[in-house]
Structure formats: structure tokens, C-alpha cells
Design goal:
The structure is a homodimer of 330-residue chains. Helices cover 45% and strands 16% of the residues of chain A. The first copy, chain A, has 330 residues and is an alpha/beta fold. Chain A has 3 domains: 44 residues, lambda repressor-like DNA-binding domains (434 Repressor (Amino-terminal Domain)); 127 residues, 3-Layer(aba) Sandwich (Rossmann fold); 132 residues, Response regulator (Rossmann fold, 3-Layer(aba) Sandwich), CATH 3.40.50. Chain A has a 6-stranded parallel β-sheet, sandwiched between helices. In chain A, strands 7-6-8-9-10-12 form a 6-stranded mixed β-sheet, sandwiched between helices. In chain A, helix 8 runs parallel beside helix 9 and helix 10 crosses helix 11. The interface between A and B is large, with 45 and 45 residues. The first copy, chain A, binds a DNA duplex (30 and 30 nucleotides) through helix 2 and helix 4.
Amino acid sequence: MATIQDVATQAGVSVATVSRVINESPRVSPDARARVLEAIGRLDYRPNLLGRNLRRTEARVVLVVLPSISNPFYARIVEGIEDVARVEGFNVLLCNTGDEAERERVYLGMLSQRLADGAILMAPSLRVDELELLCHAHPLVQCCEFHAGATVSHVSVDDRAAARDAVRYLLSLGHRRIALVASHGSLVSDHCRFDGYRDALAEADVPFDPELVAYGRYDFATGRACGDAFFALPPPRRPTAVFAISDLAALGVVQAARAAGLRVPEDVGVVGFDDIAFASMVDPPLTTIAQPQYDLGRTAAEILFRQLRDPAAPPEDRFLPHRLVIRRST
Amino acid sequence: MATIQDVATQAGVSVATVSRVINESPRVSPDARARVLEAIGRLDYRPNLLGRNLRRTEARVVLVVLPSISNPFYARIVEGIEDVARVEGFNVLLCNTGDEAERERVYLGMLSQRLADGAILMAPSLRVDELELLCHAHPLVQCCEFHAGATVSHVSVDDRAAARDAVRYLLSLGHRRIALVASHGSLVSDHCRFDGYRDALAEADVPFDPELVAYGRYDFATGRACGDAFFALPPPRRPTAVFAISDLAALGVVQAARAAGLRVPEDVGVVGFDDIAFASMVDPPLTTIAQPQYDLGRTAAEILFRQLRDPAAPPEDRFLPHRLVIRRST
DNA sequence: TATGCTCGTGTAATCCGTTACACGAGAGGG
DNA sequence: CCCTCTCGTGTAACGGATTACACGAGCATA
């Protein structure tokens, strides 16, 4: 593989001049530039970026840390991040943590090892203090999920308002027994969506009934299990509608309803959260709170690059608008 | 940020000794080792991997090139690749090409720029000659899709046999008007699945009817459009079953059937391909050909690392077993 | 003609580890 | 007591680029 030295020799100039041509410095005579370009072409020279990166102390890589890329909700966000990163000349390194804090730590260690310049965290399993420490040393952005109170940039929808909108809508359809598939992790969306649910009930003077809240994760199995529990309740206590913390969980609820011999939406209404592509592919198409996934990704990346350019920039908290998408599951 | 020199000074040894400790060379006295480890701890030293990588001329990165991570079929494969890469100490760089050959070229350029050591291609849009050229210079594995005849390693299921099994199964249910949602790209799965379809029809002496084949891509919209066309046919000509080239397309077909007032599976049977997680979450759960996605990823990675260790290793062609998963859409 | 610019270019230091080679000390054998 | 080995360690070259600094040439100004 040709090196910059080979090009220099071939073109009859010094390595400095070759480097200047590559980096489009104006201080190169047209003549020298032509000879260098010619040599580069002849030798099929491509700069060794390991050398450049070492010299510049940058990797031009951003970490995208998430529990699992198999969750289609993240996939679309990643595309938003990638599109911004590409125009900035950065690469996206995918970091599946499987929700293990230790794997997350290993990946984030790449920052201090200089293999990455910044990171976007989707659902941090790190403790707040670790996060804070880290963000003093490296550009960091939380996307969608975040630790409330941490002085780390973040971008997300207003989860509380979004959940409130979803439940208000169910109330407006006349539902009074509205169940919630929730999660009690340490992330804001867990709390906020729960709070939004209670907000809406309180507004409508519908008493909160703990029997109508089941906890789990954000996946299909959780929805199925919670749904099974809800629909096992005898008719007066059984919910007539379910608000699920994610579309995946909502799909599980729909399946549980069918298994219990209930029709959606006639016997039970279901609302999801996220608006993944699948929400509109299934039958019945899912009513859900749409998160602007692609824009969440883009925005997170934009904030990250701002911090990369100006390390002194203060952390930003950005909220993007959500949207209630009414389909046929309600 | 501390460098190896700082550690050396702090520990009262030379940088060589520090390096030996880090790389677990046996030629270090227990005493020196202890002092070095102590200094590393005190300074919170982490080796700058840019320096190491330059010296070793490796990036410890594998490229995973695919059209779109939003397709859940790929997501699971990526996890298989990642799990193997992690134990090898490699990172996975995600390369969404959006099916643009140019973007694919840019990403693969990272190989010659030393930012990556090898690549796994999911659905190459490069020409065969480019591929061949590339694989002489760098370890390369094609996963799932591949250019037939290219002397580049690959791992996939036997697409032709798989499609044959799917159609045989529909025939065994008594279907005679079996439609196919196909694709006419240059990839093998396009051809092979088509061939398998014809194989099965021929075996059963069912005449091939071009009216029952529609072409598109692998996505939901394709399935919907092709399904709409099929179900617009008047009853004697209308298919009683559809075999779709992917689960996503099958989902589109199911939606089209519903839109046409047809019940699945009573009026029309649908079989997909891939067995993505969603196939079992929808209603009716999809009968499909399961590809061992995770293992496809693992195997591709294993072949890649074999080639990385021994660049002279001959290309491998590996076929993994598929499986007909019968659910309720047939 | 001397002075001071600008311009183009080259030399060499630098980024940070890794490792070939050299060297001195101590052990063991003859 | 000398020779040979092994062991632990250090020095310095090296990987491939970037860039501060220096320098000579050419030109304009005084």
C-alpha cells in the first residue's frame, strides 16, 4: 500500500506538499498540485487514516449506544443519526448493550481510548453519577430516554404530555376502565408516561385503580403478559381500553385480547406508543403516539456535533413534538 | 490524558516495560509489573488505541453493510455478528447504504483507508467485478444475499429449496392457484426463490401462470401493491394462496387481502419468508420460511475472522438449514 | 540598492504505542 | 575462573500522516 512518502517521491515534492494537496490547502502551486494529483492517481494512493487520526487525535466516530437494534423503534432513530453523521464525515458505531450496564461501560470506554469522539445514548443503564462524570470529559447526548436531573444534553418528546394525550383520547371515547402497561425502571419515560396517565384520569375525575396498572419492559412479551392479566379480570373490573408504553407492548395486548376472545376495538381499545413502522402494517392498525424517530436521531446528532465543535457549549434539553395517530385499534 | 510515557516515569521504568505489562508479556519482573500497575491505576491511564492501531496497522473494526437497519430481518443478523465480534475484540461499524451503490463504495473504501479490517455484505449493490477485486485485498463475506459465481465467501440458506418447501406446503393444502411476490434484482435470492417456486409447481404438474407473479422489492409496500393486483383478478383466476419473498411483503399481502374483503387463511393463504420476530406477533401469525438469522450472522462473522487470521484461506460457501414454520396464515 | 513582503516548499518534530535489538547482571556448567 | 545462557530492561526505530518553522526566490517599495 502506497504511503504519502511514495507519492512525494513519485511527484518530486516533499510529503508536506502532498499533505497540503490532500487537505486542500491553498498554498500549493498549480504545477505541484497537478504533479501530486497525478502521482496519487498513478499509485492509487489513499491516505492511511490511522496515521491521520493519531496525529489529529480524533477517530471521526460516534457511538450509538442502545439496548437492542432489533427494536425497530431504535432503527429509525439510528438512520437519523447516521444521515447527520455522514455529512459531517463521521461514522456511526453501533453499540448493542443488551441492557447490561457493563457492556455499556466497555463501549463508552472507547471514548477515553480515543476510538470514538462522542456518544449518543438511547437508554442509559449507567448510574447518573457515571454519566455526569463522563459528559465532562466527552460530548454526550441522551436520546429519547434520559436521566432526569442529570446535566447531560438530551432530546425526546414530552412523555408526560404524550401519555396524557393518549389517555385523554381514550376518555373522550367514553372509556372509564383504562389500563396501563407500564415499566418501573429508572428512566423518565417510565415515570412520565405513568404521570401523564394519572394526569388525564384526574382531569376526568376517574379514580386511579392500581389493579389496572401492570409492569414490565417495553417488549411484546410484556404486553402479552399484562394483557392476559387484565383480560382475566371479570367484566365489571375488566378494562375496556389499554394504553401501552410501547407499540410492541400494544401488539402483545392485542394478541392477549384475541386470545381472551375479545375484539379490538369493539370490546377493548388499545393505544400504543412510538409509532413504529409496523403499527400501520398490522390488523387492526394501531392507534398510537407517534414519536418523530428520525428527527429525534437527527437532533441528537446535531447537538452532539455542536458540542464536538465547541466543547464548552452548555448542555441542551430539547423536546420534539409528539402526535396522536388515530387508527383502527380504538 | 496520561500517556505511556507518563506511566513509565511515574513507575520508574521505560515505556517498553509499561507496554509489556499492558500486553501481558511474560518478560517482566513481578516487582516492575506491580509498580507499573500501580502507576496505571494512579494515573487512570488508558492506552490511546489510535497509536496502537497505527503501529499494528489494524483498526479492529468490521464493516456490516446493509440496505437499511430498519428492516428487522437484518437487525437480528447484526446481533449475531456483534456477539462474535465482541469476543474477538472487534467493533461493528454499521453501514446503511439505502441501496445506493455509491454509499456502499464509500463505506468499503474504509478498508483501504485502514479504518476497517474486513466487511460483511448483506445485499451487495456492487458489481461482481468490483466485489472480486475487493475481496482479493480484504477479507469479505456475503451474508444471505450473494452474487452467484463470485469467488467471495458467502453464507445463506438454500433459497431455492426453501421456496420449494413453501410452495410444496401450499400445494399440499390443496392450493392450485398460487401467486408469487418476487423481485428481479441481480441477487440470488431473487432467482432462487423464483426457481424454487417453479420447481414445486412442476413437481405437482401445476402449470406456471405468469399472471400469478408480481415483482417488486422486499418491503411492505411491495406486498400491498402485488396483493392488490392479485386480488383484483376475478374468482377463477384469483389466487387462493400467495407466497411472498419476505415477511414484510407477506404482511402487505395480508393487508391487501383484508382490503379486498378476503379472509386469511379462509379465503387466501399467505406464506412469508425470513421469520422476523413480527411474524408471530401479527394476526394471523404468519406461516413462513424461517431463516436462522442469528446464526447466519454468527457464521458470517466466524468466516470473516478465519480469513482475517489467515488471509490465504480459500473462500467458503456455507448453507444453513431453513425451516418451514406453520402458523395460522395458511 | 537595500528592505520587507508574500508565496511555495521542505525539514523535522509530533501524535502514542510496539518491538527489534542491545546490554548488563546473575546463574549454571566445565 | 571463564564461558554461555537466560532474564529483565532500556534505547530507539517505526507506523503514516500533519504542521510549525525556516528558508529562498521573486517582487514591490523607498
